[in-house]
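Sample log: DUF1963 domain-containing protein.
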Amino acid sequence: MYVIEMTSEPAVAGDRDTVGGRPILETEQSWPDCTCGRRMALFFQIDVPADVPHFGGEHLLVFQCPIHNDAAFGPRRLPERYWETPLGGNETAFWRILRHRGGVVAASPDDIIQPLRLALRPSGPDDEWDFRVGGHPAWIQEPEDHICACGADLEFLAQIPENLGFPKRPEAPEQIDTFDFDAYGLCLGNMAYLFACPRRCDAAAAWPINQH
Ligand SMILES: [Zn+2]
Ligand SMILES: [Zn+2]
């Protein structure tokens, strides 16, 4: 497994491991919109290292609506197209997790999150609670699992620790229900365990399990 570290180096067009910046998408894949119609903010994207089980070699992108900020709740057996269906009392489908093997750099950068480079390094036993990709989830509560609409068991891909702030651009508005006025958080700052479909039934077939 690998720890994902935020650096203070500005991200430039074509960088593949970033917070904010220009998303790298698959051919004919569009920048995701929330069901409210707003373009989602790019929180981060990384190339998943080749030795991560199930997902090595994929490009992972994590987006959330700039104004919708909530925890994700859903049934264990997820319904058809769960990534674009508001579930569990959520008002909107406000997050999107994409994986693919394409390489189209978006024409413009994200306008909410400060574009910075990320650095990945192999993790050790002390990094269990860090922002990381691969390995096993460090559960705060009881372990949870979900079954994709296609029938596959979702597999662990990455975790985002509690109250991890993704620095915002100075000109961007403060996030609604934030824990940090200079940053945006995913899913209200809950711990987020990203699980994804190993069958790749859709580029967006993934789910953020939230705990706190
Ligand atoms: Zn929205
Ligand atoms: Zn699936």
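Observation: The pocket of zinc ion (ligand 1) is lined by residues 34, 36, 38, 65, 67-68, 92, 94 (CB under 6 Å).
Observation: The chain has a mean pLDDT of 97.
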